[in-house]
Amino acid sequence: MERWSGRVALVTGASAGIGAAICRFLVDKGMKVVGAAREEERIQALADELADKPGSLTAIKCDITKDSDVLGLFASIKEKFGGVDVCINNAGMSHNHSLLEGTPEEWREMLDVNVVGLCLCTREAVASMRENNVDDGQIIHISSIMGHQVMSYSTLHFYSATKFAVRALTEGLRQELRGLKSHIRVTAISPGVVKTEFLSRMMKDKEKAQGVFTNKKCLQAEDIVSTVVHVLSTPPHVEIGDIIVLPTE
């Protein structure tokens, strides 16, 4: 991780769960981290907590579903830091309805966050890297095991479709970067169930979500941080396409 010290990382969905845990680790390792989310105050509270660490955390309010917010986010990063070296697309969400019960509004929101927002952040991150001749940059998509298989949980079928899209986008970007003879790397990390706020937000029921976590030993946010560290720690000539991380149980 030493080569990333002093460099700039963007983490979306940074206010809680996996995103907040990634921010915490990267700041501890000396990176200048920009945390983006709708709940800016939660990121700022984390930034205040990490004020004495080797790196820094800058909180920026950003609704990933709004193109203007995303473009403004990258303009702010350029003005303050010059550009990005690492982009971690962690923002993601789901509604708790099956395909037969869902609404177009819910589907569009999931697509805007999980697919379109991810693509726009990636496009802008790569443009920033190329403008600044960052040829060892890293893009990481926090995806899901549901991007590899359609499971029997009907309320997650549309979410699964968005993560299948992320899987295709990861490979498509890798091919485009290779065509440009760029050494910017792109990786997807596909976890199983992680104990975060994701399920309680989806179900709108903290108690029900807690039941999922107590039924078996699930992954923790720190487990996904360890996987991010593995990706960032590989030599520049090594590109990891996708990592599946599952609870043992």
Automatic annotation (TrEMBL):
InterPro entries registered for this protein in UniProt: SDR_fam
The entry's keywords: Oxidoreductase
One Pfam match: adh_short
Presence of keyword Signal: no
Keyword check for Secreted: no
One Gene Ontology MF term: oxidoreductase activity, acting on the CH-OH group of donors, NAD or NADP as acceptor
Family, similarity comment: Belongs to the short-chain dehydrogenases/reductases (SDR) family.
PANTHER family: DEHYDROGENASE/REDUCTASE SDR FAMILY MEMBER 11, DEHYDROGENASE_REDUCTASE SDR FAMILY MEMBER 11
Name of the protein: Dehydrogenase/reductase SDR family member 11-like 2
Source organism: Homarus americanus
